[in-house]
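Cross-posted from the bioinformatics board.
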Amino acid sequence: IAGITQAPTSQILAAGRRMTLRCTQDMRHNAMYWYRQDLGLGLRLIHYSNTAGTTGKGEVPDGYSVSRANTDDFPLTLASAVPSQTSVYFCASSAGEVLSHTDTQYFGPGTRLTVL
Amino acid sequence: RKEVEQDPGPFNVPEGATVAFNCTYSNSASQSFFWYRQDCRKEPKLLMSVYSSGNEDGRFTAQLNRASQYISLLIRDSKLSDSATYLCVVNGQAGTALIFGKGTTLSVSS
Protein backbone atom coordinates (compact mmCIF):
# COMPACT_ATOMS: atom_id res chain seq x y z
CA ILE A 1 0.00 0.00 0.00
CA ALA A 2 1.56 3.30 -1.08
CA GLY A 3 -0.60 5.67 1.00
CA ILE A 4 -0.36 9.02 -0.73
CA THR A 5 1.74 9.64 -3.78
CA GLN A 6 2.56 12.98 -5.35
CA ALA A 7 4.04 13.81 -8.71
CA PRO A 8 6.31 15.28 -9.75
CA THR A 9 8.83 15.15 -6.91
CA SER A 10 10.23 18.46 -8.02
CA GLN A 11 9.76 20.85 -10.90
CA ILE A 12 11.28 24.03 -12.24
CA LEU A 13 8.72 26.07 -14.13
CA ALA A 14 8.81 29.27 -16.14
CA ALA A 15 6.48 32.02 -14.95
CA GLY A 16 3.22 32.10 -16.86
CA ARG A 17 3.16 28.38 -17.52
CA ARG A 18 0.33 26.12 -16.45
CA MET A 19 1.19 23.29 -14.07
CA THR A 20 -0.79 20.48 -12.46
CA LEU A 21 0.49 18.77 -9.34
CA ARG A 22 -0.88 15.28 -8.96
CA CYS A 23 -1.99 13.58 -5.76
CA THR A 24 -3.34 10.06 -5.40
CA GLN A 25 -4.30 8.14 -2.27
CA ASP A 26 -5.17 4.46 -1.99
CA MET A 27 -6.67 4.53 1.52
CA ARG A 28 -10.22 5.36 0.38
CA HIS A 29 -10.13 8.48 2.55
CA ASN A 30 -13.00 10.92 2.20
CA ALA A 31 -11.14 14.18 2.80
CA MET A 32 -8.14 15.49 0.93
CA TYR A 33 -6.11 18.68 1.28
CA TRP A 34 -3.44 20.73 -0.41
CA TYR A 35 -0.95 22.74 1.66
CA ARG A 36 2.02 24.86 0.79
CA GLN A 37 4.97 25.19 3.14
CA ASP A 38 7.26 28.18 3.04
CA LEU A 39 10.20 28.98 5.28
CA GLY A 40 9.04 31.04 8.22
CA LEU A 41 5.35 30.67 7.36
CA GLY A 42 4.63 27.05 8.14
CA LEU A 43 1.96 24.94 6.46
CA ARG A 44 -0.92 26.86 4.92
CA LEU A 45 -4.06 25.28 3.52
CA ILE A 46 -4.74 26.04 -0.17
CA HIS A 47 -7.85 23.97 -0.95
CA TYR A 48 -9.61 21.01 0.55
CA SER A 49 -12.24 18.46 -0.40
CA ASN A 50 -14.65 16.80 2.02
CA THR A 51 -15.59 14.07 -0.40
CA ALA A 52 -15.56 13.31 -4.11
CA GLY A 53 -17.38 16.00 -6.06
CA THR A 54 -16.92 18.79 -3.51
CA THR A 55 -14.10 21.28 -2.91
CA GLY A 56 -13.51 24.29 -0.69
CA LYS A 57 -11.09 27.17 -0.32
CA GLY A 58 -8.49 27.28 2.38
CA GLU A 59 -6.34 30.10 3.70
CA VAL A 60 -4.41 30.85 0.47
CA PRO A 61 -6.49 29.73 -2.55
CA ASP A 62 -5.69 32.52 -5.02
CA GLY A 63 -3.91 31.34 -8.15
CA TYR A 64 -4.80 27.70 -7.53
CA SER A 65 -7.67 25.44 -8.52
CA VAL A 66 -8.56 21.87 -7.63
CA SER A 67 -10.97 19.18 -8.70
CA ARG A 68 -12.16 15.95 -7.07
CA ALA A 69 -13.64 13.75 -9.75
CA ASN A 70 -13.18 10.59 -7.69
CA THR A 71 -12.13 9.49 -4.20
CA ASP A 72 -8.51 8.77 -5.00
CA ASP A 73 -7.29 11.79 -6.97
CA PHE A 74 -7.01 15.45 -6.00
CA PRO A 75 -4.96 17.43 -8.55
CA LEU A 76 -3.86 21.01 -7.89
CA THR A 77 -3.53 23.33 -10.89
CA LEU A 78 -1.61 26.56 -11.20
CA ALA A 79 -3.21 28.23 -14.21
CA SER A 80 -0.42 30.76 -14.73
CA ALA A 81 2.49 30.26 -12.35
CA VAL A 82 4.17 33.21 -10.63
CA PRO A 83 7.46 33.28 -8.67
CA SER A 84 5.59 33.71 -5.36
CA GLN A 85 4.20 30.21 -5.89
CA THR A 86 7.67 28.77 -5.40
CA SER A 87 7.14 26.46 -2.45
CA VAL A 88 6.91 22.90 -1.22
CA TYR A 89 3.42 21.52 -1.82
CA PHE A 90 2.01 18.75 0.35
CA CYS A 91 -1.12 16.77 -0.33
CA ALA A 92 -2.84 15.11 2.64
CA SER A 93 -5.86 12.97 3.32
CA SER A 94 -7.95 11.89 6.28
CA ALA A 95 -10.60 9.24 6.71
CA GLY A 96 -13.41 11.52 7.87
CA GLU A 97 -14.71 14.75 6.50
CA VAL A 98 -13.00 18.06 7.20
CA LEU A 99 -15.66 19.11 9.70
CA SER A 100 -14.87 16.23 12.05
CA HIS A 101 -11.46 17.71 12.85
CA THR A 102 -10.44 14.59 14.70
CA ASP A 103 -8.96 12.41 12.04
CA THR A 104 -5.28 11.92 11.54
CA GLN A 105 -4.03 13.58 8.40
CA TYR A 106 -1.61 11.56 6.30
CA PHE A 107 0.73 13.52 4.09
CA GLY A 108 2.32 12.75 0.76
CA PRO A 109 6.07 13.22 0.25
CA GLY A 110 5.64 16.68 -1.27
CA THR A 111 6.42 18.43 -4.54
CA ARG A 112 9.16 21.05 -4.61
CA LEU A 113 8.16 23.69 -7.14
CA THR A 114 10.35 26.52 -8.33
CA VAL A 115 8.84 29.22 -10.53
CA LEU A 116 11.37 31.38 -12.35
CA ARG B 1 -2.52 37.22 17.61
CA LYS B 2 -1.65 34.32 15.30
CA GLU B 3 -3.92 31.29 15.52
CA VAL B 4 -1.21 28.88 16.67
CA GLU B 5 2.05 30.16 18.09
CA GLN B 6 5.18 28.22 18.90
CA ASP B 7 8.69 29.12 19.97
CA PRO B 8 10.67 28.38 16.79
CA GLY B 9 13.83 27.43 18.69
CA PRO B 10 16.14 25.88 17.84
CA PHE B 11 16.40 23.84 20.99
CA ASN B 12 19.87 22.29 21.18
CA VAL B 13 20.08 19.57 23.83
CA PRO B 14 22.42 16.65 24.64
CA GLU B 15 21.30 13.06 24.47
CA GLY B 16 19.37 12.05 27.56
CA ALA B 17 18.06 15.52 28.26
CA THR B 18 14.45 16.39 28.94
CA VAL B 19 13.01 19.11 26.75
CA ALA B 20 9.61 20.80 26.67
CA PHE B 21 7.87 22.66 23.88
CA ASN B 22 4.98 25.04 24.33
CA CYS B 23 2.22 26.18 22.05
CA THR B 24 -0.64 28.65 22.41
CA TYR B 25 -3.78 28.84 20.29
CA SER B 26 -6.23 31.67 19.80
CA ASN B 27 -9.55 29.95 19.06
CA SER B 28 -11.20 29.05 22.35
CA ALA B 29 -13.67 26.85 20.47
CA SER B 30 -10.95 24.48 19.26
CA GLN B 31 -11.63 20.87 20.14
CA SER B 32 -8.83 18.86 18.58
CA PHE B 33 -5.14 19.16 19.30
CA PHE B 34 -2.15 17.32 17.93
CA TRP B 35 1.61 17.25 17.76
CA TYR B 36 3.13 16.39 14.37
CA ARG B 37 6.77 15.72 13.66
CA GLN B 38 8.54 16.82 10.48
CA ASP B 39 12.00 15.71 9.49
CA CYS B 40 14.07 17.91 7.22
CA ARG B 41 12.50 18.18 3.75
CA LYS B 42 10.05 15.39 4.54
CA GLU B 43 6.31 15.28 5.08
CA PRO B 44 4.75 15.92 8.52
CA LYS B 45 3.69 12.82 10.44
CA LEU B 46 1.39 12.54 13.43
CA LEU B 47 3.33 12.16 16.66
CA MET B 48 0.39 12.13 19.06
CA SER B 49 -3.03 13.56 19.73
CA VAL B 50 -3.48 15.70 22.82
CA TYR B 51 -6.34 14.82 25.15
CA SER B 52 -7.92 16.98 27.83
CA SER B 53 -6.57 14.83 30.64
CA GLY B 54 -3.08 14.74 29.21
CA ASN B 55 -1.56 11.67 27.64
CA GLU B 56 1.71 9.83 27.41
CA ASP B 57 3.29 7.72 24.70
CA GLY B 58 6.60 6.27 25.80
CA ARG B 59 9.03 9.14 26.30
CA PHE B 60 6.53 11.71 25.05
CA THR B 61 3.95 13.46 27.22
CA ALA B 62 1.36 15.93 25.94
CA GLN B 63 -0.65 18.31 28.10
CA LEU B 64 -3.58 20.60 27.35
CA ASN B 65 -4.68 23.62 29.36
CA ARG B 66 -7.96 24.86 27.90
CA ALA B 67 -8.27 27.80 30.29
CA SER B 68 -4.93 29.21 29.15
CA GLN B 69 -5.29 27.87 25.60
CA TYR B 70 -1.92 26.22 25.94
CA ILE B 71 -0.49 22.89 24.77
CA SER B 72 2.81 21.33 25.72
CA LEU B 73 4.99 18.44 24.62
CA LEU B 74 7.58 16.93 26.94
CA ILE B 75 10.29 14.65 25.61
CA ARG B 76 12.25 12.66 28.17
CA ASP B 77 15.60 10.93 27.63
CA SER B 78 16.15 12.61 24.26
CA LYS B 79 17.61 10.51 21.45
CA LEU B 80 19.55 11.62 18.41
CA SER B 81 16.62 10.40 16.34
CA ASP B 82 14.33 12.93 18.06
CA SER B 83 16.01 15.72 16.09
CA ALA B 84 13.23 17.20 13.97
CA THR B 85 10.73 20.01 13.82
CA TYR B 86 7.66 19.59 16.02
CA LEU B 87 4.42 21.13 14.80
CA CYS B 88 1.60 22.11 17.11
CA VAL B 89 -1.73 21.58 15.34
CA VAL B 90 -5.21 22.75 16.29
CA ASN B 91 -8.52 22.48 14.49
CA GLY B 92 -9.74 25.74 13.00
CA GLN B 93 -13.15 27.31 13.07
CA ALA B 94 -16.11 25.24 11.93
CA GLY B 95 -15.84 24.30 8.29
CA THR B 96 -12.09 24.52 8.01
CA ALA B 97 -9.27 22.07 8.33
CA LEU B 98 -6.38 21.95 10.79
CA ILE B 99 -4.24 24.96 11.65
CA PHE B 100 -0.52 24.28 11.88
CA GLY B 101 1.97 26.19 13.97
CA LYS B 102 5.25 27.11 12.32
CA GLY B 103 7.08 24.49 14.31
CA THR B 104 9.80 24.19 16.94
CA THR B 105 13.15 22.79 15.87
CA LEU B 106 14.92 20.31 18.13
CA SER B 107 18.52 19.25 17.68
CA VAL B 108 19.81 16.45 19.91
CA SER B 109 23.57 15.98 19.98
CA SER B 110 25.83 13.23 21.34
